[in-house]
Amino acid sequence: MIEGFLEREQEEVYRYLHPQSLMDRQGPGSFQLHVAGSALCDAVGSDSLAFANVVMAVDSLPIIGLLPFGAVVLNDSGRWKVLSFSTAGVVPATSDVSVDGFLVEAQGDDPGEAPVSPILLEPVSGFAFTQEDLGRSGLDFVWMQGHSDSVIGEVIEFVNTSEQRSFLFLYQDRGGERRVERNMLPSNAGEWIWRVWSIGSDGRVSFSYTRRFTQ
Predict the structure, then answer these.
(1) pLDDT, the chain, mean
(2) What phi and psi values does residue 179 have, to the nearest 5 degrees?
(3) How far apart are CA 154 and CA 163, in angstroms?
(4) d(CA 215, CA 211)
(5) How many other C-beta atoms lie within 10 A of the C-beta of residue 156?
(6) What is the Cα gyration radius of the chain?
(7) CA 13, CA 97: separation in Å to the nearest integer?
(8) Given CA atoms 87, 24, 18, 181 in this order, what sign does their dihedral have?
(9) pLDDT 10s digits, 57-91
(10) Across-strand partners of 95?
(11) What's this model's pTM, rounded to 2 decimal places?
(12) What's the maximum distance between 2 C-alpha atoms anywhere in the chain?
């Protein structure tokens, strides 16, 4: 599936994307790689959600060589589809979090209640960071956690035309605020989209609304 996802023309790649993916907002040319071979390094997940690390042998200019990719896939009516996909994968936000350890908790058989969606707080949609802001502290991405007993973790996701970054948190302080420092992001100029996922104990995912910012 992932090889097909990488090799498809822009118009065809959408059938591999989950309906909730933000990757259809990326510009032309984000895909269209020729994959000579691939190897699955590891994959963990539940019947609803899975994280996979893959190494691809790519032989199409401007990229030639071995590339690591991280994919998050969701079950969409019995078919696995790509929710997010990048060379960075999903990065644990703190040293005490591991994707493997987290997903052990997402194996429950009891579906329970659907996870409650988080609420984005700061910055407001359309906010523009300036060059003077680059070295400043206190310019964080802040959201309110959804109050739900079924939530076991959250992912904050950032997407622009050439990059995708996602950070995994364990769920704490139900209903409290959480934040990510802006300096965790690459400095790519242009418009970005961000949102937060809530992940339930059965692997189901709920999403906040999206917001945009430029830098």
Answers:
(1) 76
(2) -145, 155
(3) 20
(4) 14
(5) 23
(6) 17
(7) 32
(8) positive
(9) 877 666 677 877 788 888 888 888 888 877 777 77
(10) none
(11) 0.80
(12) 50
Cα 200 to the center of its chain, rounded Å: 16
Specify the pairing of strand 90-92 against strand 164-170.
Answer: parallel
The token pair that represents 74 in the structure block: 């969701």
Q: How would you classify the pairing of strands 205-207 and 211-214?
A: unpaired
CA distance 68 to 89: 9
Q: Alpha-carbon distance 34 to 36, whole Å? A: 6
Neighbours of 135 (CB within 10 A): 8
Q: Which amino acid, one-letter code, is at 108?
A: G
What confidence category does residue 26 fall into, taking pLDDT thresholds of 50, 70 and 90?
low
What token pair was written down for 153? 């973790």
pLDDT at 28: 39
Q: Where are the beta strands (DSSP E) in the chain?
A: 35-45, 49-60, 63-76, 79-86, 90-92, 119-122, 127-128, 140-144, 151-159, 164-170, 177-181, 191-200, 205-207, 211-214
Any idea how long the chain is? Answer: 215
Region label for 89, one of left (φ > 0), alpha (ψ between -120 and 50) or beta (otherwise): left
Buried residues in 14-29 as b, exposed as e (16+ CB within 10 A): eebbbeebbbeebeee
* Nearest partner of 177 among 96, 122, 99, judged by Cα: 122
